[in-house]
Amino acid sequence: MSEEEFNGFKASQYCDNEQCPKYGKVGDGIICIRTYKNKQLYCNCCKSKPFSLFKGTMFFGLRTPIDKIVSVLLLLSNGMGMNAVCKHESVTGDSVRNWIVLASNHMEELSNYFQKTCI
Q: What residues contact residue 29 under an 8 Å CB cut-off, 6+ apart?
């Protein structure tokens, strides 16, 4: 993951500590990098415990690079069959099914985000 991509994800993070005065506020500049290598952040306001860059996303806890997951989902959405996608991207069918389920669980949040930002 490039530094630009990392900072893009970091910019959308917020403190989820309800006791923090900046709780839930995105883009306040309070989220700092704890470790770039492990993709961990923390709130500079309340000095919260470190959390993952991908908390609250479908990518949380996955070890496969995001680019590969997005590529697989894009190929499927463009009509390529499951077996062809698995062969083309060198992934298993079980992994692809898992990513589809994860993506579908986040569709409501994604739809709400686009409605707020694009309309």
A: none
Q: What is the distance between the alpha carbons of residues 16 and 23, in angstroms, rounded to a whole number?
A: 6
CA 85 to chain centre: 22
Distance CA 99, CA 74 (A): 12
Q: What is the pLDDT of residues 93-115, one digit of tens each?
A: 999 999 999 988 888 877 777 77
Which residues are bridge partners to 51 per DSSP?
41
Q: What is the pTM of this model?
A: 0.70
Which residue pairs, CB below 8 angstroms and at least 24 apart, start in 7-11?
9/53, 9/54, 10/41, 10/53
Q: Are 100 and 107 in contact (CB under 8 A)?
A: no
Q: How far apart are CA 50 and CA 36, in angstroms?
A: 12
